[in-house]
Design brief:
This protein has 69 residues and is of the alpha+beta class. The chain contains one helix and four strands; from the N terminus they run αββββ. It has a two-stranded antiparallel ribbon with strand order 1-4.
């Protein structure tokens, strides 16, 4: 409660794992399924590099995509 806020959304592991990770995983899965159903030709733009940040909780800073309208 007294530690400063961290600039990430990590869920942690071990004894201090966040119970919300299961809910967050389902929300992300459902969101991606709905997005891919809505835009079936959505693809990663391979002309742009994917930059990553972090070490323990590594993730992309951005992910460029293309699709036809």
């Amino acid at each position: 409660m007294t530690r400063p806020p961290l600039p990430h959304l990590a869920f942690g592991t071990g004894n201090h794992a966040c119970a919300g990770i299961y809910f967050a995983n389902h929300v992300c899965r459902i969101g991606l399924e709905e997005l891919l159903e809505t835009i079936p030709n959505l693809e990663r733009d391979t002309s742009e590099d994917v930059e990553f940040w972090g070490w323990g909780f590594r993730g992309p800073t951005s992910l460029h995509a293309t699709w036809e309208v």
